[in-house]
Amino acid sequence: MASAPRIFQLVGTCNNYHWGKKGRNSLAARMCEKATPTGFEIIDDEPYSEMWFGDYPDFPGRVAETGEPLGDYLGKHKEELLGAKIVKDFDAQLPFLPKILSIAKALPLQIHPNKQLSERLHQKQPDKFTDPNHKPEIAIALSRFEVFAGWKRVSHISPLFKNPALAQFVPSGTGEWTNDTLRQVVRKLLKADEETVMTVENEIARLSKNDLRKAIGEDYMADLIPRLQMEYGSTDPGTLVALLCMNFLVLEPGEALYIPADGIHAYLSGDIVECMARSNNVLNVGFCPPADRDNADLFTEMLTFGPDTRGDITLPRQKSDAGLKGRTSVYQPPIREFDMLRIDLGPDEDEEIQALEGPGIAIVTRGTGILHGNDEEIAVKEADILYVAPQVQTEWRTSSDLQVHMAVSGLQ
Ligand SMILES: [Zn+2]
């Protein structure tokens, strides 16, 4: 068999979940259009939620030149394109799955089950849980990015539950709240009937910003409740769990967060680069129609709790030694599957990324430039996606500006 090129272009596949931004407002759609040589038609009224560009078969990245799904191609050139370590440790599959998301309204309130539960669910329902893996993920803001993630401190949650409309969700005899109190409260909120959810939501919607500030020190709930009700109606329990119990964070471009396995989250708006362990397992309980919701008991049983301050949830961007000229930073989640490099170049600047033990997938998120590697030069522009084989040093340069996000395995 002919040997594979060490660097080659990929195209992503876009999906159309209803929460995606519509038509040309979607960065995922615009990127797909720019990167697809055979053409990709954007329809104005259609939502474009995510562009995937990994080897996962659901919405596969493809080799640009041939259209072959990346997974099939890697399968033919395992050692060359994945490296010995990934062949051995990750069953000859890319350990990470990168995506671009364009979010117009809340994604389902969700957790991604840990490995143990994923294995169990995959065995029982392979059609729904399509792999046995966990899915810790990172999200890097490309625009302003709103998100519910992790839990507020119980001392910030419990005061509002003294309100008569909410007291019914607190187990009788509760004194000081513990994490287990919160687990039981969340279970009851998720299992409440639609009538009850609506009554409670309307009760909360009546509270003034002043009342809220006095009770819990925050007033964003007053603005978010009508917005979430417009998106998902007044009977979705996700609104109650997210507003009453979870942190609401706004990230600016370049800021990132890390969601561990079993970590609760619901992204609300923005364009992001997302990267996760290679999995598609999810349990949804809110911000989706009742028929799409998973079992609330299973969901609450799996929940993990804190520490969940903004500092715990956000993932710092640090300078990376992988960039030999100091123009590279890295987001490093505490997992072994991947890290995300970011290269930022101004006019007439360049950067060299050292050869790594594992492969990388780079996406140009801004500007134009030249990629040099393995004695080849490739002109690159925004939305281009490049596969870089293990042990290949790359050099990036531009006369204008260039920003690249690169998911890598085997950094350290
Ligand atoms: Zn998620």
UniProtKB/TrEMBL annotation:
<dbReference type="GO" id="GO:0008270">
    <property type="term" value="F:zinc ion binding"/>
</dbReference>
<keyword id="KW-0413">Isomerase</keyword>
<comment type="function">
    <text>Involved in the synthesis of the GDP-mannose and dolichol-phosphate-mannose required for a number of critical mannosyl transfer reactions.</text>
</comment>
<feature type="binding site">
    <location>
        <position position="265"/>
    </location>
    <ligand>
        <name>Zn(2+)</name>
    </ligand>
</feature>
<dbReference type="InterPro" id="IPR011051">
    <property type="entry name" value="RmlC_Cupin_sf"/>
</dbReference>
<dbReference type="Pfam" id="PF20511">
    <property type="entry name" value="PMI_typeI_cat"/>
</dbReference>
<comment type="similarity">
    <text>Belongs to the mannose-6-phosphate isomerase type 1 family.</text>
</comment>
<feature type="domain" description="Phosphomannose isomerase type I catalytic">
    <location>
        <begin position="7"/>
        <end position="153"/>
    </location>
</feature>
<protein>
    <recommendedName>
        <fullName>Mannose-6-phosphate isomerase</fullName>
        <ecNumber>5.3.1.8</ecNumber>
    </recommendedName>
</protein>
<dbReference type="GO" id="GO:0005975">
    <property type="term" value="P:carbohydrate metabolic process"/>
</dbReference>
<keyword id="KW-0479">Metal-binding</keyword>
<comment type="pathway">
    <text>Nucleotide-sugar biosynthesis; GDP-alpha-D-mannose biosynthesis; alpha-D-mannose 1-phosphate from D-fructose 6-phosphate: step 1/2.</text>
</comment>
<keyword id="KW-0862">Zinc</keyword>
<dbReference type="InterPro" id="IPR046457">
    <property type="entry name" value="PMI_typeI_cat"/>
</dbReference>
<feature type="binding site">
    <location>
        <position position="112"/>
    </location>
    <ligand>
        <name>Zn(2+)</name>
    </ligand>
</feature>
<dbReference type="GO" id="GO:0009298">
    <property type="term" value="P:GDP-mannose biosynthetic process"/>
</dbReference>
<dbReference type="InterPro" id="IPR016305">
    <property type="entry name" value="Mannose-6-P_Isomerase"/>
</dbReference>
<dbReference type="GO" id="GO:0004476">
    <property type="term" value="F:mannose-6-phosphate isomerase activity"/>
</dbReference>
<dbReference type="InterPro" id="IPR001250">
    <property type="entry name" value="Man6P_Isoase-1"/>
</dbReference>
<feature type="binding site">
    <location>
        <position position="137"/>
    </location>
    <ligand>
        <name>Zn(2+)</name>
    </ligand>
</feature>
<dbReference type="InterPro" id="IPR014710">
    <property type="entry name" value="RmlC-like_jellyroll"/>
</dbReference>
<feature type="binding site">
    <location>
        <position position="110"/>
    </location>
    <ligand>
        <name>Zn(2+)</name>
    </ligand>
</feature>
<dbReference type="GO" id="GO:0005829">
    <property type="term" value="C:cytosol"/>
</dbReference>
